[in-house]
Design goal:
This protein is α+β, with helices and mostly antiparallel strands and 498 residues long. The chain contains 14 helices and 22 strands.
Length: 498
């Protein structure tokens, strides 16, 4: 059993409360999607299934989520076509890019719900979507248009034109979000026609200059996430290299100073989008677990500390901000809440974060980021509070001892009084019951003109907050935590990374 505590639990509960509102219930959810068939419904289901797993140990909250999911799936057949997906059935003449993208999210949610319920009717539905939709549309990716597009807004829209058999979206590249849904469907069905389709679509995507085409970063990383899942299933090293290359391009051309994103490559005048921030977080987590490269774990901590935790709003949802990059050093609210995508995507992200609180390897237990968790298995039981930014301490209670070891990841240059830190890990023994109270000392480091306290980016503000630091003759402090302010209060909050 792994029970999430303190700040991460607070954020999970905030998001869960938001997703209990009527627009995420069967009564209203089917009126929200607009020109994105399956998108709203799919993100909703995926968020709820993710939160269900994140709330392990909270039985009443889990049962409440399952009840909401059951109501949704009781009504979904009234809104899908004869083959089990959203929007019009594929006619063989053209592909609606937004329908493809939206139904990828629905597939993801449907599959996760199938894993929870084990109900065979959902497996049959997945198989129908594969046969009647995914495999037939695959050849159209051979001719995906790569010309410049109309610029869209936060929600994206159909351009209205037909090019090469495609009805295109202003969210350039969003058709490749389906790589996430396709690979998840292959994980379930092992359909050989689908496997061939996936291989071909990956090949097509890698011929696209997604940076100069100004593809949506969210779409690009969603595609990369699907390719990485395909690598896990095929063990073809080429796919791992492909994902690392895509992610490297994102770090160079799509990431901001605060470890969030530019919404489209090369469009630094736009905004950040938590949907993509979650994508980047999941990718760093998965790449670390596969490669064991320290750079990915370091990135995970930077993204979580500086971006995920600062973009959640006080209503539990998630919103957008201006890009802090190059000449755009100021960060302020751009949109209080993107309830139609980012709020639900945050639920999926929080679930992935919760799943990562403990990594077990034989008799070794790793805590990869700042969090608090109560853990028990057949060998050990312990409670760890490693939320060290506020209290400057780590508290540990060993409730069931064994010949096991605990490793807690700390930022570069962190020190713990009386304990050595090797390669960024605090190493402790779990062989005796009892409590430990460890004091953590964090250092300020300057990187490329930016100031970090541990992994926390420090910013200049028009007010003095505690704790604060005098650096370069200016006052810096922690990033604003948006979950602590109302929408009106956020409008007046501006901070500067340099």
């Amino acid at each position: 059993m792994k029970k999430i505590l303190k700040d991460l639990k607070r954020r999970i509960s905030l998001n869960r409360d938001r997703l209990s509102d009527s627009i995420y219930q069967y009564t209203d959810v089917f009126t929200q999607g607009g020109s994105w068939p399956g998108d709203f419904e799919g993100r909703d289901v995926l968020a709820l299934t993710s939160l269900y797993h994140a709330l392990d140990g909270y039985k009443e909250e889990q049962e409440n989520i399952l009840a909401q999911l059951k109501s949704l799936f009781d009504h979904i057949p009234l809104h899908t076509n004869a083959y089990g997906y959203f929007g019009e059935a594929f006619n063989g003449e053209y592909v609606d890019e937004q329908q493809v993208s939206g139904n990828s999210w629905y597939l993801r949610g449907l599959i996760e719900y199938y894993y929870i319920t084990k109900d065979e009717k959902y497996l049959h539905q997945i198989q129908s979507i594969v046969k009647q939709f995914l495999v037939p549309i695959a050849p159209f990716y051979d001719h995906y248009p790569t010309g410049k597009r109309e610029r869209g807004g936060v929600g994206g829209k159909l351009e209205g034109s037909f090019i090469n058999g495609w009805k295109l979206s202003t969210d350039v590249g969003c058709a490749f979000i389906m790589m996430d849904g396709m690979t998840k469907a292959y994980e379930v069905t092992h359909n050989e026609d689908l496997k061939k389709a996936i291989e071909k679509i990956i090949e097509n995507f890698l011929t696209i200059d997604y940076v100069n085409l100004e593809c949506q970063t969210h779409a690009t990383l969603s595609c990369a996430r699907g390719i990485l899942r395909f690598y896990r299933m095929t063990k073809n090293d080429k796919y791992l290299k492909d994902v690392e290359h895509i992610f490297s391009d994102y770090l160079k051309d799509g990431m901001t100073y605060d470890y969030s994103n530019i919404n489209w490559f090369k469009r630094e005048d736009t905004w950040t989008e938590p949907c993509c921030i979650v994508d980047s977080l999941i990718l760093t987590k998965e790449l670390y677990l596969i490669t064991n490269k320290k750079e990915y774990l370091d990135l995970f901590n930077r993204i979580y500390t500086n971006s995920i935790r600062t973009f959640q709003r006080n209503n539990g949802g998630a919103g957008c901000a201006t890009c802090a990059i190059h000449s755009h050093y100021d960060m302020k609210m751009f949109l209080y809440e993107a309830f139609f995508c980012c709020t639900m995507r945050l639920g999926n992200g929080l679930g992935s974060i919760a799943d990562f609180t403990i990594v077990k390897k034989d008799n070794q237990y790793f805590i990869p980021f700042t969090c608090a968790v109560d853990y028990e298995d057949e060998e050990v039981a312990f409670l760890v509070d490693a939320e060290f930014y506020e209290g400057k301490r780590i508290q540990i209670e060993v409730k069931k001892a064994s010949n096991a070891e605990l490793f807690i990841r700390l930022p570069e240059n962190a020190k713990v009084e009386g304990y050595p830190i090797e390669n960024g890990w605090l190493h402790l023994s779990l062989n005796e019951k009892g409590k430990m109270n460890l004091f953590v000392s964090l250092q300020i480091k300057k990187e490329n003109g930016l100031h970090f306290y541990g992994d926390m980016l420090l910013t200049r503000k028009d007010e003095v907050l505690e704790p604060h630091f005098l650096l370069d003759n200016q006052v810096y402090s922690y990033l604003y935590d948006s979950s602590l302010f109302t929408e009106e209060e956020l409008k007046g909050k501006i901070q500067y990374v340099k």
